[in-house]
Amino acid sequence: MKHRAIEKLLERANIEKSDSDFTYFNSLLLTGEVLVKTVTLGIIAAISDDKDRNRYRLEHLLVRADGLGDWAKAIEDALSGTASQYLLSEAYTEQSELSKQCKLGDWQYDSVFALKTALNELDITSEDVPVKSDMKKWFRLFSTLRNKTRGHGAITTTKASNAIKHLEKSINLFYSNFALFNREWAFLYRNLSGKYRVSPISDNAPSFEYLKKETAHNFINGVYIFFGIPRFIPLIHSDADLQDFFFSNGGCSGKKYELLSYYTSDKREGDAGIYLTPPGTLPASETEGYGELLVNGNCFSNVPELINEYIPRPELENQLFQLLYDDRREIITLLGRGGIGKTSLSLKVITQLYNEKRYDAIVWFSARDVDLQPNGPKPVRPVVYSPEDISKLYAGLVFPQIKLMDKSFKAKEFFEQQLQKSEIGPCLFVFDNFETTQNPIELFLWIDTYIRLPNKVLITTRLRDFKGDYPVEVSGMEDLEARTLVSQTAKRLKIEKLLRNDYIDELIYKSEGHPYVIKILLGEVARAGKSTSINQIVAGSDDILTALFERTYASLTPCAQRAFMTLAGWNSLVPRLALEAVLIRSTAERQEIEKGIESLIQFSMAEIYVSSSEAQEFISLPLVAGVFGKRKLKISPFKAAIQIDVEILQMFGSSRRDDINLGLARRLEKFISNIAKRVDSGESYDNYASILEMICRTYNLGWLIMARWHIESGTQENYEKAKNELTLYLENDSTSDKASEAWRILGRAYNLTNDALGEIHAFVERAQISSVPFYDISNTANRLNRIIREHALEDQEVKRELVERLLAVLKKRQKEASADDFSRMAWLARHIGQESDAQEYAKAGLALDSYNDYCLGILERNGCLEE
C-alpha cells in the first residue's frame, strides 16, 4: 500500500534524478527524513494514554527536536523503552518488525546494510552492522548520515554518486516492506454537519468510511492512522485536499514550533501551547484521596478532607443528599463548568452521609489532571485513568499487597463483582473529574453495566455524553452565597477596604457567580492593590480561560463552536431566532445548529434570557466565556466567515438584559420575513440564493463565505462559482487584511480548476499586501518557480511581469529572508535572465547558511561552485 506523503517525495526524487546526482542524492535524503518522521510518529500514535503521559513525553521531545538524533531516541523508547509497555496490541507487528534481530536476506538487515554501505561510500564513520541487526539501527545510521551531510557537513558530487544506489535501495526496502505502510491512513475533516470528509492518505481507507455517515464522533481535524480505532498524529499537518504534508521540524520557541514540507520546502507554524507542561511525573492533586480506608462516622472512606473555605450551598446540598440517600437511582451526575464547585459540593455532602447508616463504605476515585489554585491552574497527576486503574486502586484499598501480587487475582473482575454486591456492605463509588478519564463514554457504559443497588455511583464532570444517569446541574452561586465568598476571600487577602459595594455588584454580575472566577478576580485586586477593571483582568488570564473552557470547547460539535465564536464576536444579547437563522444561512445545517446552541446552554457556556412581553429568547455569553471565545475567533480558519455573521447580527441592534423587551419585533421583522420563516418551513438553502446575494452586495464580506461553501463542495461547477464570488469581493476590496484571505482562496480555486496562471496571479496579488507573512510570499515564489519549470506559463510577457512584481516585494522585505528564501529569489531572477542578480541572491543565502543545498545548486548551475 502506498503512502501519499512519501510518494510525493519519491515523485520529486524521480524528477530530480534527471537533473544531477548531487540533486538526486539530496532528494533521497529528504525522502529518508520523511520516512523517519512518518514511522516514528505512526508508532508513537499507537501508544495508549496512561497516567504518566508517555506519548505526550515523546511528542514533547519531538516538537523541540532540532535533529534526527532525537527522533531515533523517540522510536527506540516507543519500541523497547518505558513507553513500549503502553503500545496497543494492534501495533505489536510493527514493534516486532523493527525490534527483532535479522540476518542477511531479511529485508530489515538488507536495508540497514545498504544504508551502512552508503555511509562508507561517503567516508562517514558510523556504528558497525553485526551479523544480525535489528531495524532500530537504521534510524541511528540515518541520523548520522543526515548530520554529516545536509546538517553539519558537505559532500562532493562524486561521493554522492557512489552512495546513491545504496541509499536508494535502503529506503525502498524499508518503505516497501514495513507493516506500518500497509495500514490505513487518512486525513479527517469534520464538516459543519458533524460528519467527516475522509481523504485517504494510503491507497484506500475503508475503516474510516463510517465517519462519513455518523455524527456522534468527535475527532480533531488532522492526520490519522488506523490501529483498531483512528489514532491522531498531531505532528503531521495537511489538509483535506492532501496537497502537501508538513512535519514537525523543531524550532520551538514560546508557543510556536516549525512545520516543514519536504516536498515544497514551505513552512508553517504549529501551536506548541499544548506542549508547555513539563513531561516528568506531575504532583498529586489536592483532592486525590487517601491511600487507605479510614473510619469516618459509620463509614469506611478514603475521601479527602473538605477545603476550609467552603461556602455552604444549602439548596444544592439538600438536593444531592436526598439523591444519594434514596434507593432509586443508581448513578447521579454533577454537571457543570470547571471550578464551579462540583467537587467541593460532593465532599460536603459526603461528610453528612458519614453519620447516616446508608453506606458502609464511600470510595473516592480521582481522575483530576488540573488543580485550580488561587494563583492559577496547575497540572497534576490523575490517580485513575482507565477501568484497570480503578480496579487496582479499589483492590489496594480492601486487600493486603500480597493478595495483589497473586498472578491469579484479576482486579477488574473483582471490582465488577463489587459494583454488583460489595463485600464491605452498601458502597458509594465517587468518580471525580470523570471527563478526564481515558474514554468517558466506554467507562460509563462499563460502570452502568455492573452497578446494582444498594450500591450507588456519584460522578462529577464537565461533559455528559452518556445517558442512563440522573444529572444535577451545578451553576453559579446564588447572590448571597457569592457575597459570602467575596467577604470571606477579601478578609483572607486583607483587601476589604479596596472593595466598594458597586465593585462587588459588578464582580458578582460579570463572574456569573462562578466561585473560582470570583477568587481569581479578588486575587488580582490584592496583587494590584486597587480595584482593577474586571474586563482587563479576565482578558489577561489566558491560562485560567484555558483551564475553565478548553476541554468543554473541544468537545463541542463544529456547529456549536461556530455559534460560540459568533456570539463572542458580538458583545450583545442576540435574539435566538436571529442567531439560528444567520448560522443556518451560513452552514445549511439547521438541525446541527439547533443542537449546537442547546449544547452551549447545557454546558453553561451560554445563557438564555426570555423577554416577558413577547416570550422571545435572547442568548449571550458570560464575560469569561466571551473573552475565551474571542481568543478562539482570532485563530479560527472561519474567522472571516464568522465576522460576516456577526455583522449581519449587528443589523438587529444591540440589546442589554434590561431592554430586551423593547423593539424586538421591529429588529426581527425583516430577518424573520425574508429568511427565518422560510428556513423554518424546511425549504432548501438553494431557494434563498438570491436573498443571500442581496445581503452580500450590502455586506461585501459575504462573498467570502459563499466562496468557502463552494470550494468545500468539491465540484468543478462550484469552483467556478467560488471564483466569481471572490472576484466580486475583490472588486470592492483588494488590499485589506481580509482581502489577503480572499486572494488566497481565489488562488486555491484556480488551482482546483487547473488554471496555473490564475492561481499564481492571485498569490502574486496577495503578496502585495503588507500584512501577508514573509514565509507566505516566499511560498508564492516557490509556486511560481515550479510553474515556470513545468512550462505551465508560456506567455513570456506575463511571466516577466509576475516575476518582477513578486521579486520587488521580496527584495523590499529581504531582511526577513532565510537562505531558502534567497534561493527562491535567485530562481526567479534566473527565469527572466537576471543571472547576476541570481548569483547575488544565492550568495546572500549562503551567507546565512553556508551549506544550503538550494543556493549551492544555483551557483553550481552557473559554474560558480568550487568542487
Q: Explain this structure to me?
A:
Helices cover 53% and strands 10% of the residues. With 867 residues, the chain is an alpha/beta fold. The protein folds into four domains: 1-281, no CATH class; 294-473, Rossmann fold (3-Layer(aba) Sandwich), CATH 3.40.50; 479-548; 556-695, Arc Repressor Mutant, subunit A. It has a seven-stranded mixed β-sheet with strand order 9-10-12-15-16-11-17, with helices on both faces. Strands 2-1-3-4 form a four-stranded antiparallel β-sheet, covered by helices on one side. Strands 5-6-7-8 form a four-stranded antiparallel β-sheet. Helix 21 packs across helix 22. The protein starts with a helix and ends in a 6-residue tail after the last helix.
Q: How does the overall form come out from the CA principal axes? A: globular
Spatial order of the strands forming the largest sheet = 9-10-12-15-16-11-17
Q: Which stretches of 5+ consecutive residues score pLDDT under 50? A: 667-680
- Percent of residues in beta strands: 5-15%
Please tell me the total number of domains: 4
Q: What is the averaged pLDDT score?
A: 86
Number of alpha- plus pi-helical segments: 35
From the helix content, strand content and strand pairing, which structural class follows?
alpha/beta
Through-space gap between termini = 41 Å
Global Rg: 31 Å
Number of extended strands: 20
The largest sheet is: 7 strands, mixed
The helix content, as a percent range, equals 40-55%
